[in-house]
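re: the backbone from monday

yeah here it is again, tokenized this time
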């Protein structure tokens, strides 16, 4: 076998942060973006790797590192982190009265950076549906949203890993249109007894409306 060693073309070192950066990708709008920790924000680069903008969630939420989608109309879609103190003793036996529970929200900003859509996990997801999470712990990541995609009809497809659920959301009314997987599954898995578990990267299939691709991590499944 023959291996070729690539030459470093471009790099940027962040020496002032423990976590560094991630989610580096080419957006469909033609620019490059990546997430930088400390502070949590997205950096926008042109094709020559020059920084042209920074993007963050609004309304006091933390900008999550899993997904940023830049849209052709200049809008941007974010996953937001929203840690809240919750008295889990009212929800589960042995729950802490001061647990930090992390909510996840979808937020859309217009081209001027104003919030034009916001969907909050607190309004739609129950904490106890995160059946594999330790609900008696001090920190509970009950949603762990990890992808957003725009469907062919303009509505949103989101993946919530710790709920083992893909959810389709009406972008106008915020109504849940369907739920695939997890404790609130609306579908039959025909010819497959294995449901999705702790998945990533839910996307409408290219060129095939009504079809979707999901990477099924399969956590908590044996084998």
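seq for it, each position gets an aa:
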């Amino acid at each position: 076998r023959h291996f070729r060693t690539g030459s470093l073309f471009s790099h940027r070192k962040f020496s002032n942060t423990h976590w560094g950066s991630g989610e580096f990708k080419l957006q469909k709008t033609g620019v490059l973006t990546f997430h930088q920790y400390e502070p949590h924000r997205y950096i926008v680069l042109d094709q020559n790797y020059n920084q042209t903008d920074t993007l963050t969630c609004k309304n006091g939420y933390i900008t999550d590192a899993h997904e940023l989608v830049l849209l052709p109309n200049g809008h941007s879609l974010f996953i937001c982190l929203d840690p809240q103190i919750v008295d889990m003793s009212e929800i589960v036996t042995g729950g802490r009265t001061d647990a930090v529970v992390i909510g996840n929200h979808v937020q859309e900003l217009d081209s001027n950076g104003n919030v034009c859509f916001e969907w909050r996990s607190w309004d739609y997801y129950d904490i106890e549906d995160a059946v594999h999470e330790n609900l008696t712990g001090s920190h509970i990541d009950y949603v762990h949203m990890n992808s957003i995609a725009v469907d062919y009809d303009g509505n949103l497809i989101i993946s919530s890993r710790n709920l083992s659920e893909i959810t389709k959301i009406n972008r106008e009314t915020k109504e849940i249109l369907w739920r695939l997987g997890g404790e609130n599954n609306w579908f039959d898995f025909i010819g497959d007894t294995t449901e999705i578990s702790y998945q990533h990267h839910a996307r409408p299939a290219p060129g095939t409306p009504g079809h979707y691709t999901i990477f099924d991590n399969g956590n908590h499944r044996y084998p």
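The chain is about 0% helix and 40% strand. The chain has a mean pLDDT of 94.
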